[in-house]
Amino acid sequence: xxxxxxxxxxxxxxxxxxxxxxxxxxxxxxxVRAVGFGGPRMAAEGADLLFxxxxxxxMGFIEVFWKLPQFFRLKALAEKYFAEHRPDAVVLIDFPGFxxxxxxxxxxxxxxxxYYGTPQVWGWAAWRVKKLRAYVDHALCKLPFEEAWLRERxxxxxxxxxxxxxxLHSRVLDKAFIAEHCDPKQPLVTLLxxxxxxxxxxxxxxxxxxxxxxxxxxxxxxxAVAAFKEKHVAMAEEAIRDAGMVRGEGxxxxxxxxxxxxxxxxxxxxxxxxxxxxxxHHAKPTVxxxxxxxxxxxxxxxxxxxxxxxxxxxxxxxxxxxxKVGVYDRRDSKDAHVLMPEYLxxxxxxxxxxxxxxxxxxxxxxxxxxxxxxxxxxxxxxVAGASERAAEYVLRELGVATDVAKAA
Length: 408
Fold this sequence. Notes:
There is one protein chain. By secondary structure, the protein is of the alpha/beta class. It is built from 19 helices and 13 strands. Strand 8 (about 190), helix 10 and strand 9 form a beta-alpha-beta unit. The two termini are about 25 Å apart.
């Protein structure tokens, strides 16, 4: 008899991980029906979506506040589905602000809850681990240190690996596009303004300011923007005009070519997020920006418990939970090990962004040394198979018979 698994996935990256997990179920010949909240990639893999939750991917208190009525309606819809159909399991991926509520409702109905890619409670307000312990039966961790940290606090946690690497290992790049954009005499700097509209709005103007400063010192450099979707193209074009750049002066904007633009680049200027793992996969020198309001900056200083906001940097941190947490400082020897200089800020850090880019553009030795260090970490952590391990775990816990030979 088929097992019904209810998914709740609210981020574009989570939609990708959900689609890969469903595909892993299918490869095992498992009789599983996927329903619930997700995105277009999950739908393409056969998920029966009650709502495309990726439409509501939001950040910041104001955006969340205005969309609260929609979230309440979706919570009620999930509870109605649980009461009437009682799925065999609930799988949550990312999106903790909403998914905590789905987990709580599922537990009320006695439905086992799997959290695939647990929220980073270890980094922000660690008291939230109580929610994981209370509402989640199986925590499937993306990062190596998470399993031990969660188990020490009473959570049934298992490390399966980061599902993003599955996608990265399976991608086929447009080699012709990459070759077209590679020119040793005119190095390429790729700007990555983020996948969320608010990220683009908050960060791209400062990336453009850094671009101006890099161009003054390295006039032969070229610049390209990897836009996540068409909507961001118009935003980028407006920001370029606001920066005083006339036609031909601004960076060239592309949609749907992020992997190729990363691979073709000499270095990148990116917004903090899972893209740092993609940049590690390509071993690409990158400086990270995450520009927030003054209030948000103060708030993170109260709740953040880890020394860095970039996952790649956390994987190299000699002390993951220091007594005192600050921000990265390129002049401080304690941050010398950092692979991706990062700037969490409410101020103009375009000088710092430009400093790193110019260093990599002008010094082949500095760039090569950093690439070597990134490659070493990549070999240690950037391994594929998270989707398969997670699928195997979920199906085993649900008692679903699978064709292991077929999965292999």
